[in-house]
Amino acid sequence: MKVVLQNLTKIFPSRNKKAGGEVVAVNDFTFEIPDGKLIGLLGPSGCGKSTTLYMISGLQKPTGGKIFFGDDDVTELSTENRGIGLVFQNYALYPHLTVKQNILVPLQNLKGENKLSKQEMLERAYEVARLVQIDELMDRKPGELSGGQQQRVAIARALVKMPRVLLLDEPLSNLDARLRLQTREEIRRIQRETGITTVFVTHDQEEAMSISDMIVVMKLGVVQQTGKPQEVYDNPTNLFVAKFLGTPPINVFNGSIKGGKLFLGDSAVLDVPELEDRENVYVGIRPEGFVVDPNGPLSCDLSSLEVMGRDVSVVSRHAASINPVIRSIVDADNKIDPTSPTINYSLKRHKVFIFDGETEERIYFEV
Amino acid sequence: MVESKHKWKAWLYLSPAIILLLIFTVWPIINTVYMAFSEKYSMMEAFTGKQFTIGFGNFEHVLVKSVGTVGSDFFRALGNTAILCVITVPLSTILALLIAVCLNSIKPLQKLLQTIFFLPYVTNSIAIGMVFAAMFQVIGMAPDGSEAISWGLINEFLKVFGVDSIDWLGSTDGDYWANITVMVVYIVWNALPFKILVLLGGLQGINKQYYEAARVDSTSKFRVFRKITVPLLSPMISYVVITSFIGGFKEYSSIVGVFGEDMNGGRLNTMVGYIYTNIEKKQGYASAAALVLFVIIFIVTMINLYVSKKKTHY
After folding, report:
1. Domain A3-244 carries which CATH code?
2. Which residues 6+ apart lie within 8 Å of B29 measured at CB?
3. SS3 (DSSP) at A196
């Protein structure tokens, strides 16, 4: 089931009527979620990603715009009739019911021709429980389960009625780091096996990048960029997206363009003959975009080295850098003298992005 | 743990409460037990230093000899109390639950309605009793004895539906169940505010996400009430039931408020009323009855706790 969002807008009225100023949580969101894909809505808190999710679920009504499931306009359809599965951030498992009873609730609500016999319900419940690997916990209460197990129960409850769309609100935020890694693989696997169009919300870019077919990066209610995770990472359209994606984060410098050359401070680091002269630009360089080169144009003060086996993380400083330190990741084959006061780099062209100093929009150049 | 050399400080801080409790609660309880087992106890004689024989005489009087005596039959008082409890506790709890759920689901005027529902709680029960007495007022019987002549609001209301006036407050020879009906209406109405308040507080403490999850799963309103609201509210419900059973067993002032101190010739006497009528002259009987009441409340509460442990989801 593909999901189409058309000019979706949500405006919350201001709490304080005198002060005025309503909050635009989601602004003119247009996007098509292809059938059977896993989509990550990504952004810092307050960017409107959860609001978007809840509008798809029907728990919140959009102020403007339309939502389609396939060809059906569901904008005015109430949550009950949308046929969605929703996994809440805190799971919202009924604490007084066992795992089995929790999973059965959606099935017991089916009416008319969809009504199932007790036997069929149990079969469906156990089938989905096996899928998320909780079939041995069916008689426990949610309070007796670990966070990761509760999360699976919540997914099972959302999946058991075979929803048209599965929605997950920050599904991993309540899990510890190890479980998070494990569970995100699980979500990927379950989504692949069921083929249900799935939308999930997260503020963790790594999480979104690692399992999504497509990501949507949002900021203050406005969509910044959509695309496959790798494409968005390799080709950010503005400084915000470039800074938001990637660990360690991108290194940002104050730069300028003079005579077809890109300057960081006084050092001309790249030839950009097709660009006009500009006083102020931001220059983003991915950590993996640095190449250790004794004759390289960018000379930095070396602070420390962190050897990580295959790679070396180099911490250095430069006057033009906006971040306090520059983090670069270079191949461990480079023999760097840790006592040396400086380190020289040349840059990989396709890992360098130039952004306008005012609008922070990308300025493209020939790679 | 508090270090031992500072322990006296802890006792010092606790002492005001402890001293008051000892004087006004613990000592009277001990005294009650003593009086209950002192045969033919009389406070006047106790002052003269008379020693009483210890025995079950008072209990014998209360439980055996008083039976059948008009106006001071212990079992009549126990029966009245039990009838009122058994009818009013479930009735008022169910009504309070429905009203609380309704109140919780409306946004406008919620605070105003909450205040209105709470008014009976802050009103003097004797005053309310007098208002009820006026509402159910009957002047007397028609000369031919066919119907009651009345200007009470309730009878006027019933007349609209063509129902004959009923002698609600009828004295000794009147209809007993008419009397009980008045008491049930009165007690339920009087008990509602506190229960609504407790249950509403409980409802507002339930995480809204359970209801959102139920909506996502297209759960019907009735199923939401039965499968989510009631179980999640069950600790509050069992609290309300236990306290109102205890309150019901202590019912007395409301009856005096509606029927006067005579309580229709003692016919509507309750357990506390029985204790109270004996307290001036026959403290031994009163103490014995008080102990019996204590045992009954204790047993009922134990049953309540046992049942609610099985049915309550904490």
Report:
1. 3.40.50.300
2. none
3. coil
